[in-house]
Amino acid sequence: MGGRGSGRHRQFGSWDTEDFRSLDVRWLKREGLLEPGRIAQVTWSRRDRVTGEIGIIAERGRIILDYRQRPRGGEWETLSYPVDLVETPCNLGGARPWFLCPNPGCRRRVAILYADRLFVCRHCLSLTYPSQREDATDRAARRADRIRDKLGWKRGILNGPGWLKPKGMHWKTFQHLCWKHDLFASRALAGMREDLDRRYGRR
Question: Which of 9, 13, 58, 153 is within CB 3.0–4.6 Å of 148 for a Cys-Cys bond?
Answer without folding.
Answer: 153
